[in-house]
Structure prediction request, 307 residues.
Amino acid sequence: MLGRMLLIPMKSKTTCAVTYPIVAALLKADEFLGPKFQGFSPVNAMQERFLKEFYEASRSDLSRFSEDEIESIASTKSDEMNKWLEKRGFSIKLNPFDEDGFGVASMLSILGEWAKKGAKYSVKTEDGVYYPGVKMTNYGLGFYRIPDSEHMIIEIETRGSDRVYLMMAEAGPTDLDLVEQVENIRKKMRPVESEYSGVAFPKIDLDMKAEIDWLLHLRLQVRGESLPYYQIVQALQQTKLKMNEIGFHVKSAVAMGAILSAPLKRAEPYVINRPFLMWIERPQFAKPLFAVYLDKDVWKEPENLEM
Prediction:
């Protein structure tokens, strides 16, 4: 029976890292500039890391997505970009571009259904607070452990090829470090027999907007222009996740604006009742499609999986 729901205001610790839309947006910028594009020039360590470990490693994966899973656009008009984003359910907006500037945007949308539908459940945390949740039997579940962790990793099968993983964790890395944490877990996890009759986990309704600070001032080197490169001066991302007893839906959009520039200075079911990591994998893809650390501020009932 559903317990009394307590609503407690809290500061969000939820963080997410969705790198494929960033890769798609940068690739769109490459395509938009055409033959005059001479490559990216990073101005900080995070950009250098992203280009080496993510952009080069996963850009070939983009062709493996279906047409409705990833889209991108480039334009010299910010209004056109913003209408494109709004049509796809996003509220982030780019400011008007300079005369010689342009923008790119991309969207990743992953919709999945559980191999076997779960049941509605009430997840009770250690401090006695109840949240709307999902309970599943062992059908379509895998159980894993890693050394030196008391928490299990739960694999949930979907009707497609994607697999969803959940693991209780403390708040920790953000941005690219969050993906690295997930990849390290993937390397160490080993299947185990479970003594539990299934799993229960919170439902999720997340809508997060952020500026991608570390991407600002990335240079796009060009030839044949009055100035030697474009630089990114706007970099926004909005990510949504809804998850219930039917499945999950992830949508993440990235929008960037660039200007032409010169150099700058510068028994019981195993219950997930603590904040947890979630990531989605697809066979043959270089990186996780989605990685998120989910705190209690987004543990709530989504009306449906539509966005």
Notes: Residues 1-10 have pLDDT under 50 and may be disordered. The first helix runs from residue 20 to 33. Residues 153 and 167 are 5 Å apart (CA to CA).
